[in-house]
Amino acid sequence: xxxxxxxxxxxxxxxxxxxxxxxxxxxxxxxxxxxxxxxxxxxxxxxxxxxxxxxxxxxxxxxxxxxxxxxxxxxxxxxxxxxxxxxxxxxxxxxxxxxxxxxxxxxxxxxxxxxxxxxxxxxxxxxxxxxxxxxxxxxxxxxxxxxxxxxxxxxxxxxxxxxxxxxxxxxxxxxxxxxxxxxxxxxxxxxxxxxxxxxxxxxxxxxxxxxxxxxxxxxxxxxxxxxxxxxxxxxxxxxxxxxxxxxxxxxxxxxxxxxxxxxxxxxxxxxxxxxxxxxxxxxxxxxxxxxxxxxxxxxxxxxxxxxxxxxxxxxxxxxxxxxxxxxxxxxxxxxxxxxxxxx
Length: 343
Ligand code: HSE
Known about the structure:
alpha/beta; 12 helices; 13 strands; globular; binds L-homoserine
């Protein structure tokens, strides 16, 4: 067994809470199967943080640590990552703050500070990666640290792992993905006659849609994931401006119903295709034939299909679309840093 690995969690929203809960639930598996002892040292929020020197104290709250008596004892108002890093033995930062895709903050500052201080990073926040993926990857390489972001690229659906590891050496001719659970749920319901607003309301009631689903329904969440896949798997250097983006907010129900009646399916597809030597990236509602690998990916499920020169077409579908699935993707990335690979 290795010595305990310090873990600091930044962001205590639904994904951060699910991560704490999972850490507690999986601690025995982590020890017995991977020889890993993860030690949650601190949970940071925007106005302070919970911190403990006792083993398992923060995990034991299973993501329900509040400002009650126990929380008050562990709460340090004004605690920030920058204040914490110089005092702690390096381990892994789990970045889960809700970030801005224009500035990348606050996650961008967190990730830079953590890497500079010798911490590995796993992140579910997309903003920092949209703003400075290459800079962050270079910094991680320079410091011989890992920066992993599977949780930001469709979470429990393995997109980067398949593209980077499983398809290594193959030329990727195209990528198509249903990368957003909210829009896929809405379109699936619209194919059966529901109106857009009704389907969105249902997605909210089922906990699939976020409180503010604007980025999802306007296609930007898919575009961000596509961008990260393009730049990480295909080695491109795209920015969001290079991706043509159309969402689903203006689609009439009759178009979705007609697709189903013709034996087809209407999906929001993120697509990277090669034309000559150039790659083109776009997000758009698309009609899929029954023979398309993503035809049957319905409801909140997601999927990705890679066309390659040597391995044929490789498709992955499924992957849980909720905070627990995203937390599991964060944990998977941590396991792969410490227990499986050393990159
Ligand atoms: N809101 C996203 C979805 C998950 O519906 O898939 C976060 O990227």
